[in-house]
Design goal:
single chain, alpha/beta, 18% strand, globular, EC 3.1.3.3, hydrolase
Length: 220
């Protein structure tokens, strides 16, 4: 196995702890009903409502908050802490000229925050928040099939950068990372958040990203 040119990195549960989702955090911080929020997701999963109806329902829930400004959403995302092992991992990659690319379904506001904190140039998400002319939340765009969307982004990035799958690794924890993992030369997942659905595809489970750094060092 060769040292990778690029490593793709998921955010929720990989860069962050995954103890609470960004979505739940928004609802609770806007003092809205988490039960109503989860009921919308249940209705969607059971085919009782469409994706657009779920988006409209959740958007309406958030817009009923007294303060649903863009600034408020940014403050909410600031509560999500980056895991302690991520920054040293990022520094090692920078020192060794390995590109790090974020590939996530997290809201774009959160993605941009993580990009800035980790000094990452490239980051992609399937979720876009839309704000009105007064910078108040309006609605969001969300990919129904996150796994397919991630794979499409991944494939386009490889073509645009003249890379082959053998030159890239993927680090993630969920079923929406599975298709990209299958296409990557090596894939790893954090032991504390990994989904049972991807265990058969993961080359490595880790407690700390330091373990991935050790593998990279052996490939020098």
């Amino acid at each position: 196995m060769n040292k990778p040119h690029t490593i793709f990195l998921d955010i929720d549960g990989t860069v962050t702890s995954g103890e609470v989702t960004a979505w739940d955090l928004i609802t609770t911080n806007l003092d809205q009903s988490l039960e109503e929020h989860h009921n919308l997701l249940l209705l969607l999963r059971n085919g009782k409502i469409t994706t657009q109806e779920a988006i409209d329902g959740l958007s309406g829930l958030w817009k009923s908050a007294d303060n649903h400004s863009k600034e408020m959403f940014i403050k909410i995302f600031e509560q999500i802490e980056i895991r302690d092992d991520v920054l040293p991992f990022r520094e090692y990659l920078k020192q060794n000229s390995i590109e790090l690319v974020l590939l996530s379904g997290t809201p774009d506001l959160n993605l941009n925050r993580i990009k800035q904190k980790l000094d990452i140039e490239y980051g992609f998400t399937s979720t876009k928040f839309i704000f009105d002319e007064d910078s108040n939340f309006s609605t969001f765009v969300y990919a129904v099939d996150e796994a397919e969307e991630k794979l499409n982004i991944f494939s386009k990035y490889l073509i645009d950068n003249n890379l082959s799958p053998e030159q890239v690794w993927m680090i993630g924890d969920g079923s929406n990372d599975l298709e990209v993992m299958k296409k990557s030369a090596f894939c790893a997942a954090p032991r504390h958040t990994v989904s049972d659905k991807i265990l058969d595809e993961v080359d490595m489970l880790y407690e700390s990203m330091d373990e991935i750094v050790e593998i990279l060092k052996r490939l020098d």
